[in-house]
Amino acid sequence: MERFEPTDPQYESKVRESFARQSIMALIGARLAHVEPGYVEIELGFREDLTQQHDFLHAGVTTTIADSAGGYAAFSLMPPGSSILTVEYKINLLAPAAGETFIGRGRVVKAGRRLFVSEIDVIAKRGDKEVCCLFGLQTAMMLTARPDGPPPG
Amino acid sequence: MERFEPTDPQYESKVRESFARQSIMALIGARLAHVEPGYVEIELGFREDLTQQHDFLHAGVTTTIADSAGGYAAFSLMPPGSSILTVEYKINLLAPAAGETFIGRGRVVKAGRRLFVSEIDVIAKRGDKEVCCLFGLQTAMMLTARPDGPPPG
Amino acid sequence: MERFEPTDPQYESKVRESFARQSIMALIGARLAHVEPGYVEIELGFREDLTQQHDFLHAGVTTTIADSAGGYAAFSLMPPGSSILTVEYKINLLAPAAGETFIGRGRVVKAGRRLFVSEIDVIAKRGDKEVCCLFGLQTAMMLTARPDGPPPG
Amino acid sequence: MERFEPTDPQYESKVRESFARQSIMALIGARLAHVEPGYVEIELGFREDLTQQHDFLHAGVTTTIADSAGGYAAFSLMPPGSSILTVEYKINLLAPAAGETFIGRGRVVKAGRRLFVSEIDVIAKRGDKEVCCLFGLQTAMMLTARPDGPPPG
After folding, report:
1. Are D40 and D29 in contact (CB under 8 A)?
2. Is the pLDDT score of A7 beyond 70?
3. Which residue, among B71, C130, D126, B95, has the nearest Cα to A53 in the 3D structure?
4. ipTM for the assembly
5. pTM of the model
6. Fold observed for domain C11-143
7. Closest Cα in chain B to C91
8. Neighbour subunits, C (≥3 Cβ pairs < 8 A)
9. Which of residues 47-66 of D touch C (CB under 8 A)?
């Protein structure tokens, strides 16, 4: 596993500030659990109002925390003044998203000049048991022209 | 574009009943707009509490409606007594999810014996303008052993 | 279907010259069948030495023509002096690659400033029958710093 | 990393026999380097006639060995009398395929009842240096109705 050196000494605070502006995270009850250079974890508790027809978390919900985990893993490595855009992802749903707590994890596997590729997954925890319910790959792009945050309104 | 014959005459009502059990749809305010054999549309209005850090809909939210649209497009073609499981999807985010209304669309491109492949996309509408903000492919599997619905509790 | 205006009037000859340098195409017997702005077709005849264990074309072979078709569809829209790099693709194998002739097709669905997304597929033809055996999505990146061709040796 | 128990004691010989029937492997000069339960390596030397326009291996060629490595990793875990079909894959091209030798690797990450998900990659070696040039995910399906091999002619 490659270790990355952050190019922004404020990498953790900028990730935390950006995450705090993702209002969807408040709606679903997700929190930013861990940030290190090139690696991020987002935690989410099970809730009935996040489910699909079989009473498991909807894949869109686990994708939400996996996508943000991968994106912020990449963002943690970007220089000050840049922002991030997810280009694409591919996700395999390995098991039903059944559990009490879910950890979305993103880990950068390739930090290019503009493009960052991250491995993303979601671990479903129930008691002592852990199952990987989502596994995927994400490509994100660094935007140097504009800082992170909403467009000026 | 291939036209499909449904093997379940109740295809629309079974899709609507299953969709109604996806509680995440109520949380985000999505509604099932259109069902035909092999094709489904889900509509979602913009809301501030569904956004990411740039004030666009989070990709996980547009993925939620695209995944369900593709899955229900496939489910509409399945025989009575079967249920559906998303195996995987791949999504390109073609443009920011900016708009007033979003239409998630799923269209089956291959109906196999067990596996169904659907093209999925999300159209962002603002006034008269329409932009495709998400485009992808989804693979779903038919489960014959168990009917649609939550596991017996 | 969007129509694209090429930014390079020599779009067809530059695609043909680049294709001619892809020596793998000579090895497998593929030829560039059609070039228009944002759309390319590559044709390949069945050969026993291109197959997998079930006597169908190996997925890597159909991927080869699909990837180049998508990449050259994007390259046809790029300005003079640029070159192209495939970033990623996702491919569904919809049917066995059984046939006499195979047409790999690439069609740009989104031409961004740097990134191009193309729909790619392969049609297997046998007599009058046509089957889509491969369907996918490709992301390619425009490189402005360096012209198409091998690195100076 | 999960360890898998093979359900077929002849797992290695059946993989080797099947690989030997993939005639594309002889054409490109690939050889089956390593087989263990749930893990396979395929080795390929650089050749000029396998390249794209920049003199690197064409992505379709590295995909060929990655796809077979992933598929045979899954096949090694399947019971006697079954065969395998690649359903789909997604591949990120992390670096140019430049090197003297290339190792395609497939490792099963999820062995389901019918579907197998494998991580696939290709390592490019030049002297002592190793670079991962391809990284992806593959889904394959077990066919129980028919043994591995060409359809009866």
Report:
1. no
2. yes
3. B71
4. 0.96
5. 0.96
6. Thiol Ester Dehydrase; Chain A (3.10.129)
7. B137
8. A, B, D
9. 48-55, 58-61, 63-65
